[in-house]
């Protein structure tokens, strides 16, 4: 049996959603008008309905994110909004708050957001039995861990991130933004604390390193690992980026579409999850779009090279090295050509990102507005390719559904039959008296019928089933073809079948794990039996009811409602000690500095690092302000 594989692309808005479809997405996820985990990426119901109508022509699904935790007073509005989304034709909702399951819902499928911290087979099995039709796995999982979850839950659709920005904390388990700035990541208002620079100091106040981005990870890129991820059990491959612009969506979606189509041509057991072929008018290149450098993260186990000390911003593609500086120009020793208007950046002697705009290019000599501060032998990167961006601002892809067309004669005139690649078939008739043509008509008729222009269709085979050389006026033939296209579009809409979702009444017990799955008690104490701590992110009464129905005896309030004393603010698979080469378990090396270590921010706040080697996890906790005697400068 063939496996259907879905490429899932992000959409900040309607324009991005349409271009995701055009460039090869099998599904698109977009923010709801409210209650999405990217508060700055909400969309109107009208725009979502327009995207649904466009996407469904190609069999592309539209998922809407309603993945924040909710206050009790927001539940009624959420319920009404979900019904509006269902009436708009949305295929599924991506949710975090289990309180949503207690609302009066339409029969719309629910997907468990990565914000629900899905990193064990027990958790995925529970969510499946509770009625979730698709589960978004934690980004930190290895291929082996994905395979183990799939083996335990073979009928569950697994959604796996393959590209884009990485959170340093397990998703849904980060509270530092709420603690420091009153902006909850679980409410869609993350302040991106992890992208800040810090000093790393030991317990004696000794500075280990200064002004580095210790928590800012590179971006994920699994484009060379797609087959491995699919074979591990993933059915939906997800691109991150609901805040990214349309150029990013076009380029990255097209790149992954190309990679997957190459795989499907070789692997006949795999098929794409939507219709139509994509014709690209450019060559997609991942290093042309925003990235902080790439990593495959933990797919193949621990990797030291997953974060960038120097900058959380986009470096782009490496272009070469400064060879000579002369006035307002510099010569670059490199292999890639520059363009007028390019944006260039580099890391200065202090480890900070600097940049400039290129006014004019002559071979490998760049002319700038003012004398550059860059030094010889500095490596240059291009984070804005002006020529590539010009291409991205134009029409850059075309998606067409293959159609076989047959024009036949009959007793009352002619009939036109159109059958698309999905087997949807329609017929329209032209009643007119037949008349013989004075010259051969076959080539002309085929040519006219094949002109499907700006429609979603492309003629694959055009046949004539005539008893004689009949004449049909071009205007009547065009009208017949237009009626056929309109009827086929209507038939495709009628034939599109949305999945029906239903939450299940089950006695399946919620899996309270020792750590990291929603029940770690602050302060390092062991969790009490049957207790769900602040990590359960329970903000409303409906969520409390959900967990109690599934065997949880005590449900503590969310961090956003009541901040526990001494709470861990971040749970990270990324480990600074390991990245520094001081892991006593895996690297068999010990640090020359005394623990605990602290991260000190530019505003003087101090955060303690604790290393849980049993769980292979780093924990970040607040530790007050900078101690007396420590000078950040």
Describe this structure in words.
This protein is α/β, with parallel strands linked by helices. The chain has 13 helices and 30 strands. The strands form five sheets. An eight-stranded parallel β-barrel has the order 1-2-3-4-5-6-7-11, surrounded by seven helices. Strands 9-8-28-29-30-27 form a six-stranded antiparallel beta sheet, with no helix packed on it. It has a six-stranded antiparallel barrel with strand order 15-16-19-18-17-20. Helix 4 (121-130) crosses helix 5. The longest helix has 22 residues, at 474-495.
List the helices and strands and how they pair.
Blueprint (H helix, E strand, L loop, with lengths): L2 E9 L2 H9 L4 E5 L13 H13 L3 E6 L8 H13 L4 E4 L14 E3 L8 H10 L3 E3 L6 H10 L4 E8 L11 H6 L16 E4 L5 E6 L6 E3 L4 H7 L1 E6 L6 H21 L3 E3 L4 E4 L13 E2 L21 E10 L2 E5 L9 E5 L5 E10 L2 E4 L10 E6 L1 H7 L4 E14 L2 E8 L4 E7 L10 H8 L7 E9 L8 H22 L35 E2 L8 H9 L4 E2 L12 E5 L3 H4 L17 E5 L3 E8 L4 E9 L8
Parallel strand pairs: 1-2, 1-11, 1-12, 2-3, 3-4, 4-5, 5-6, 6-7, 7-11, 10-14, 21-24, 25-26
Antiparallel strand pairs: 7-10, 8-9, 8-28, 13-21, 15-16, 15-20, 16-19, 17-18, 17-20, 18-19, 21-22, 22-23, 27-30, 28-29, 29-30
Helix pairs in contact: 1-2, 1-8, 4-5, 5-7
């Amino acid at each position: 049996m063939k496996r259907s594989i879905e490429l899932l692309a992000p959409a900040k808005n309607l324009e991005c959603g349409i271009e995701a479809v055009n460039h090869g997405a099998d599904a698109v996820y977009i923010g709801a008008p409210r209650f999405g985990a990217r508060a700055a990426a909400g969309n109107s119901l009208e725009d979502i309905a327009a995207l649904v109508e466009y996407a469904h022509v190609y069999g592309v699904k539209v998922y809407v994110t309603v993945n924040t935790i909710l206050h009790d007073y927001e539940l009624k509005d959420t319920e009404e909004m979900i019904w509006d989304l269902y009436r708009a034709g949305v295929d599924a909702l991506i949710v975090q708050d289990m309180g949503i399951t207690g609302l009066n819902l339409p029969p719309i499928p629910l997907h468990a957001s990565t914000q629900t911290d899905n990193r064990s087979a027990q958790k995925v099995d529970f969510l499946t039995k509770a009625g979730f039709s698709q589960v978004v796995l934690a980004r930190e999982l290895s291929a082996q861990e994905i395979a183990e979850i799939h083996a335990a839950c073979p009928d569950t659709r697994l959604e796996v991130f393959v590209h884009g920005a990485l959170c340093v904390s397990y998703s849904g388990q980060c509270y530092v933004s709420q603690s420091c700035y009153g902006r909850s990541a679980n409410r869609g208002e993350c302040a991106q604390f992890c992208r800040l620079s810090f000093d790393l100091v030991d317990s004696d106040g000794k500075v280990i390193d200064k002004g580095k981005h210790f928590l800012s990870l590179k971006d994920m890129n699994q484009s060379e690992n797609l087959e491995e991820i699919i074979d591990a059990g993933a059915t939906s491959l997800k691109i991150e980026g609901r805040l990214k612009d349309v150029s990013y969506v076009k380029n990255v979606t097209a790149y992954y579409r190309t990679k997957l189509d190459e795989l499907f041509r070789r692997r006949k057991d795999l098929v794409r999850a939507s219709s139509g072929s994509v014709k690209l008018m450019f060559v997609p290149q991942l290093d042309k779009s925003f990235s902080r450098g790439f990593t495959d993260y933990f797919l193949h186990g621990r990797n030291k090279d997953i974060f960038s000390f120097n900058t959380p911003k986009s470096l782009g593609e490496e272009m070469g090295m400064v060879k000579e500086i002369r006035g307002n120009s510099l010569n670059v020793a490199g292999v890639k050509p520059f363009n007028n208007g390019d944006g260039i950046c580099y890391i200065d002697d202090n480890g900070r990102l600097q940049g400039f705009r290129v006014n004019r290019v002559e071979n490998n000599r760049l002319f700038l507005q003012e004398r550059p501060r860059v030094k010889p032998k500095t490596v240059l990167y291009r984070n804005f390719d002006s020529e590539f961006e010009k291409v991205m601002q134009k029409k850059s892809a075309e998606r067409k559904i293959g159609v076989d067309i047959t024009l036949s004669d009959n007793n009352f005139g002619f009939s036109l039959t159109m059958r698309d690649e999905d087997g949807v078939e329609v017929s329209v008739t032209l009643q007119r008296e037949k008349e013989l043509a004075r010259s051969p008509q076959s080539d002309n008729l085929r040519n006219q019928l094949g002109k499907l222009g700006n429609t979603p269709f492309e003629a694959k085979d055009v046949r004539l089933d005539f008893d004689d050389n009949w004449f049909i006026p071009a205007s009547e033939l065009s009208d017949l073809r237009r009626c056929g296209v309109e009827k086929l579009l209507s038939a495709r809409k009628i034939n599109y079948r949305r999945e029906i979702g239903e939450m299940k009444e089950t006695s399946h017990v919620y899996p309270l794990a020792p750590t990291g799955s929603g029940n770690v008690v602050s302060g390092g104490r062991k969790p009490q039996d049957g207790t769900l701590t602040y990590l359960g992110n329970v903000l409303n009464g409906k969520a409390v009811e959900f967990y109690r129905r599934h065997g949880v005896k005590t449900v503590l309030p969310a961090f956003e409602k009541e901040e526990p004393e001494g709470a861990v603010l971040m749970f990270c698979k990324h480990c600074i000690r390991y990245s520094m080469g001081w892991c006593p378990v895996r690297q068999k090396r010990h640090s020359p500095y005394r623990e605990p270590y602290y991260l000190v921010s530019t505003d003087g706040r101090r955060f303690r690092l604790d290393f849980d080697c049993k769980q292979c996890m780093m924990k970040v906790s607040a530790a007050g302000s900078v101690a007396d005697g420590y000078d950040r400068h």
